[in-house]
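Page 37, continued from 36.
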């Protein structure tokens, strides 16, 4: 269905890897920090911390708060094939040193994010790639632009125009 050149271009796309950690608390738990989200510099493990309900401006007596943690690219790369339980403990340890006032969560979920952000997109690409014309098969996404909201919008607009031109 695709040409050798297209396959080579798609296989050359590179992504960073990270872990995301979610800490979930019982309703009524207070997380006393003066911020809703922050980027962390100087820590080899943690890059971003968010008090998710506070960041989204959602306060509810029925739903407990949650904390989301993203790791650094280097940590994700170094621990890509590590035991998930060990990775979770490492992240929790770093998080505790950064925010020692966090209460003990009711539950924790650690998620490997193998394809986090594009580090090398398809070169010279308009935000999509037409793989086949009959039937029309097009692919798009951040692998054809860059990994942020604007990249997603650019790819979506490019995909819409490509489909429109084939109608």
């Amino acid at each position: 269905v695709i040409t050798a050149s297209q396959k080579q271009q798609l296989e050359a796309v590179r992504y960073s890897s990270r872990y995301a950690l979610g800490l979930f608390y019982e309703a009524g738990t207070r997380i006393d920090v003066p911020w809703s989200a922050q980027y962390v510099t100087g820590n080899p493990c943690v890059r971003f911390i968010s008090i998710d309900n506070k960041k989204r401006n959602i306060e509810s007596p029925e739903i407990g708060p949650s904390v989301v943690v993203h790791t650094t690219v280097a940590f994700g790369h170094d621990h890509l094939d590590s035991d998930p339980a060990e990775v979770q403990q490492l992240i929790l340890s770093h998080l505790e040193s950064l925010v020692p006032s966090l209460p003990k969560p009711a539950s924790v979920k650690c998620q490997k994010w193998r394809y986090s952000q594009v580090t090398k997109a398809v070169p010279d690409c308009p935000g999509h790639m037409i793989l086949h014309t009959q039937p029309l098969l097009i692919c798009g996404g951040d692998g054809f632009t860059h990994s942020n909201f604007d990249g997603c919008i650019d790819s979506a607009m490019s995909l819409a125009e490509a489909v429109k031109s084939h109608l």
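The mean pLDDT is 92. Flag for discussion at group meeting. The longest helix spans residues 149-165.
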